[in-house]
Amino acid sequence: MEIGQFWDGERLSIPERLGAAYAAVLDKHGFLNDAKGPRPDEAPVGGVTQEQTDKHFTHAFDGSVARVELILVNPRGETSVSSTLLYQFLAGGSLCLVDVPSGAGAGALTLLASIAELRASEVLPRQPLEVRLLWGEISQPALNYGLELLNKINPVLEEQAIFVSVDSFRWDVLDDVSNVELVQKIAQAKLKFPQVLLLVCNFSGFLERQGKWKAANEGLGLLVRFCSGDMNAGVWIEPDQKAVSKGLFGKLSKLFRELLEFARLVDGDEEGAASSARFACPLGTGRTHRVNARALPFELAIKREKE
Ligand SMILES: C[S@@+](CC[C@H](N)C(=O)[O-])C[C@H]1O[C@@H](n2cnc3c(N)ncnc32)[C@H](O)[C@@H]1O
Questions:
Q1: Which of these, 153, 164, 163, 154, lies nearest to 20 by C-alpha position?
Q2: Other beta carbons less than 10 A from residue 159's beta carbon
Q3: Is 223 helix (H, G, I), strand (E, B) or coil?
Q4: Cα 137 to ligand 1 centre (Å)
Q5: What is the mean pLDDT of residues 255-278?
Q6: What pLDDT score does 280 carry?
Q7: Average pLDDT for residues 46-71, to the nearest whole number?
Q8: Pocket of ligand 1, candidates 45, 212, 223, 292: which has the most ligand atoms within 8 Å of its Cβ, to mutate?
Q9: Domain 4-300 CATH assignment equals 3.90.180.10
Q10: Ligand 1 pocket, residue 297 CB under 6 Å
Q11: pLDDT averaged over the chain?
């Protein structure tokens, strides 16, 4: 894959139109100056309130974008399995993209904006890609920011034959009814978009640091089962921390072993693969920030035991 446009050998750059959309939405809400200033010592993990969401959106959104881009662009060849999987699913045709918890949509927006820019510069062919995007998230304000950003970049996506219809809704991974509502939406979307890509980004703060893995286990199991199909897949992307390589990803691998008929690791390595780089601030400060990422790619293909 030609990566020159997002990587100059030293620094990643965020898809230009997504960076511009982010700056415009920050400006509209009066957060642009804060976002250009120093970052809080402890990385914000978001949350249900307007205040938690604003803090996360202002100081962590570009880092989330850069983390997903680092895995996709794969500048040093360290995350090839995840990168190839993502390019394959986004090449064309129709796709149900399940991005949960979406926050302000950094995961899906990064993938779609990157593919659009690679198409615009004729690195990738412009095959029609119809996307049913499902954004589930506990914070309504975060969902609202995501929709604002998507509205801004949608014309750029459509120019590149990427047609997105979105359903964004409140989802609480700890709530049974909410989980059933999520999987009903997935089942419904699969009728027209049978190929599913599950994207989970930056959920380790909640699951590991806040100790919610056990309580979330049932909801996550249901999610995995319903995203599974003929040849579906997922990529889980987190900061490269011990709590992920030795914690979360091990627990996730165990969950896949329990759900053997629905999910399995693509390359067998329970720790996934990691990379790191500096990325250019998309807000015109001239600064760069460090980003690291660890990704775990997995198949979500149904295999009956007797097969
Ligand atoms: C660090 S953010 C990541 C968001 C997005 N995936 C990204 O990469 O920018 C974690 C998200 O988890 C959401 N969250 C927290 N508790 C949740 C819950 N019980 N159910 C679903 N989402 C939750 C937060 O609102 C926040 O948006």
A1: 153
A2: 12
A3: helix
A4: 6
A5: 95
A6: 95
A7: 95
A8: 45
A9: no
A10: no
A11: 95
